[in-house]
């Protein structure tokens, strides 16, 4: 059974991106440069390790299947939920539970001295799984929302939107009665309106995450938990605008 996507407020998408940015900054600083919000770098690591037979980055190798499994489980949860609000609430609750485990294992294991030590791997797995759930949730349930934890595609879209807006604005200026140019300009502006809260939210999250981590260490992701708890509250009590 498919679930209708909902129109998610820009504040909510910005908060999801902020939470992901905080977690990503924390893992980068605590877990040997690991980015848990996306796995692009893991593909590079796997390719290099296959050639060099270098086993030194275990978590970066298993990050790909972990992210995949998290997305798969998210899709199953959304299908089982059957309706929009339960789908949002269930997936957010799973992400919060994974992040709670991430914080707990991080506090127990930090400071980490080796990337392949048990607690470092457990902490990394929980962080990657949480971000995989968030990524899947946004794609399946949120209507017209860009990725809240992978910024590469978002920055590409911003560049395309700017190019489309510039071209259509030029056409509209040259030909004031060109309806197609006006429609293209509005569409590019609408796309940008969806993306900028996510990009700014993620950037703000990474900055805040780095500052907080330097101050209090692995207590830092509690900020993300608080933010996601707020988003879950919104999901529980708002009226989803499905379509």
Please name the defining characteristics of this protein.
single chain; 243 residues; mainly alpha; 77% helix
Secondary structure layout plus pairing:
Elements: H1 10-30, H2 40-52, H3 58-81, H4 84-109, H5 118-141, H6 151-174, H7 179-216, H8 222-237
Helix pairs in contact: 1-5, 1-7, 1-8, 2-3, 3-4, 3-5, 4-5, 4-8, 6-7
Task: Provide structural commentary.
The chain is 77% helix and 0% strand. It contains 8 helices and no strands. The radius of gyration is 20 Å and the shape is globular. The two termini are 15 Å apart.
Range of strand content: under 5%
Radius of gyration: 20 Å
Oligomer: single chain
Mean pLDDT value = 89
What is the number of helices? 8
Order of helices and strands: HHHHHHHH
In helices, the fraction of residues equals: over 70%
User: Which structural class best describes the helix and strand composition?
Assistant: mainly alpha
Overall geometry: globular
- Outline the low-pLDDT stretches: none
Count of DSSP E strands? 0
């Amino acid at each position: 059974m498919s679930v209708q996507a909902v129109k998610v407020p820009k504040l909510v998408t910005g908060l999801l991106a902020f939470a992901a940015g905080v977690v990503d900054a924390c893992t980068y600083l605590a877990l040997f440069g690991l980015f848990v919000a996306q796995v692009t770098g893991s593909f590079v690591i796997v390719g290099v390790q296959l050639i060099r037979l270098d086993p030194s980055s275990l978590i970066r190798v298993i990050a790909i299947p972990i992210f995949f499994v998290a997305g798969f489980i998210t899709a199953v949860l959304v299908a089982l939920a059957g309706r929009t609000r339960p789908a949002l609430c269930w997936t957010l609750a799973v992400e919060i539970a994974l992040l709670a485990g991430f914080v707990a294992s991080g506090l127990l294991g930090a400071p980490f001295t080796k990337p392949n030590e048990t607690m470092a791997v457990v902490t990394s797995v929980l962080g990657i799984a949480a971000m995989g759930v968030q990524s899947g949730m946004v794609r399946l349930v949120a209507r017209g929302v860009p990725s809240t934890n992978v910024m590469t595609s978002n920055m590409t879209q911003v560049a395309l939107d700017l190019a489309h807006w510039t071209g259509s604005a030029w056409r509209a200026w040259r030909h004031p009665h060109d309806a197609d140019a006006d429609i293209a300009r509005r569409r590019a502006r609408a796309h940008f309106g969806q993306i900028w809260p996510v990009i700014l939210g993620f950037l703000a999250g990474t900055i805040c995450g780095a500052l907080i981590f330097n101050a209090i260490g692995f207590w830092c992701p509690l900020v993300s938990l608080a933010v996601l708890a707020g988003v879950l509250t919104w999901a529980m009590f708002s009226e989803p605008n499905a379509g």
